[in-house]
């Protein structure tokens, strides 16, 4: 049965949670007294639809239903997960959590998005909530810090929607990540307030340098490398004494007053005010998709989380011909002509070939055993336009699988069935030791023969054997 998430408070974070659950197949019910909440949440969900599925090379589950309610008790009825995301005020959280506790089913997990409160503070008035602290945008960033009782069971559910639960073993104000962020934030406010740097210069200092490192190796692994061949021990010996130097104003905070707010907000407007928040969100999301997809290749950081989640998603079902690709066209695949760039059709064909290889047993283990296929020739026909956000499906015909050859004809269609391209490709079976062609192992040869039998009698696809400049 489809699971249900109830989102209490649908602002920046509640909207992100709603999108994360919804796009992973959950039904989502929302309670937020703001009359603008429905519009805002729908805008956040639209942004999520254009980005989250683009992280995956398999389709996400079909979206659940989305409903907006005027009554908290009605919202949480039958919920499997209730996520409180109201403003960061303890008295308000206590009131809202008490109402949730009174109406939610006993089996429901009650998570609080609190950035700073400890579970002992949240539960002081009897609530059974635990901290489930996410990161913005919740639908793309996998990290969620879990603190409190029931964290292990909650973690399992969150992994199921593609998140990375980090169980915080001992409660502490602001958990783990916000303590780190707060240190950078505090020092940045000092630098602006003292006139050392502008908001833009600080952002450049982060994104041109260490920000790039952190997404893939974090702090400690990065510094281990910075110690040279002697590693972390040498790094610490070299830079440890700096802790006592006046590099930072640790624990000291600039006075938070109107002048500071005006200074920071004014510089931020000058830096980024030419774009709306939604435009900035889309830019951020497109960049995050590109970064996370790059990390997927090496299984690093958030890319490893997407990889693991993806293997748990069902493969597309075949409908006569094997479906070798079913994914969304990411924004980054569109070019200056406003459609999918020509190179991406070949990339999609190459992904389909890889999937077909896995289907016939020429998978990672087979390659590790020293055998594989090399592509000898490919021909792409561009038949119609695919656009960013389109669903892209590939069905693969096996035209010849005998001997050392594998001749494939990929037909790429969009979700509405329009054939946008064909990629015809000939591969040769090779011994990776000698780099010379050889016959496939019997299991692979037999799998190819089974596909050939299943496809026997199908008409030759239109366009087979075409070459560039052919006279019509
Ligand atoms: N904004 C951020 O970067 C992050 C925020 N958080 C945490 O998430 C929580 C929510 O923060 P944001 O989404 O940023 O705030 P927000 O101000 O964007 O959204 C809060 C929402 O709660 C609604 N609300 C107010 N009273 C309510 C009530 N009694 N019942 C139901 N809804 C009510 C408001 O109408 C608003 O839509 C806070 O605890 C915050 O610390 C966690 C991670 C990141
Ligand atoms: C600013 N903040 C403390 C609310 C930030 C967070 O809690 C996490 C995030 O997304 O940066």
TrEMBL record:
EC class of the enzyme, as a word: oxidoreductase
Domain 3-hydroxyacyl-CoA dehydrogenase NAD binding: 4-157
GO cellular component, one term: cytoplasm
Subcellular location: Cytoplasm
Binding site for NAD(+): 9-14
Recorded GO MF terms: carnitine 3-dehydrogenase activity; NAD+ binding
Occurrences of domain 3-hydroxyacyl-CoA dehydrogenase C-terminal (ranges): 176-242
A biological process term (GO) from this entry: fatty acid metabolic process
Segments crossing the lipid bilayer: none
Domain of life of the source: Bacteria
Pfam families in alphabetical order: 3HCDH, 3HCDH_N, 4HBT_2
Record's catalysed reaction(s): carnitine + NAD(+) = 3-dehydrocarnitine + NADH + H(+)
Keywords: Cytoplasm, NAD, Oxidoreductase
Pathway, per record: Amine and polyamine metabolism; carnitine metabolism
EC number(s) on file: 1.1.1.108
Family: Belongs to the 3-hydroxyacyl-CoA dehydrogenase family. L-carnitine dehydrogenase subfamily.
Alphabetized PANTHER family for the sequence: 3-HYDROXYACYL-COA DEHYDROGENASE FAMILY PROTEIN (PTHR48075), 3-HYDROXYBUTYRYL-COA DEHYDROGENASE (PTHR48075:SF5)
Function in brief: Catalyzes the NAD(+)-dependent oxidation of L-carnitine to 3-dehydrocarnitine.
HAMAP family listed in its UniProt record: L_carnitine_dehydrog (MF_02129)
Protein's recorded name: L-carnitine dehydrogenase
The species this protein was found in: Paracoccus zhejiangensis
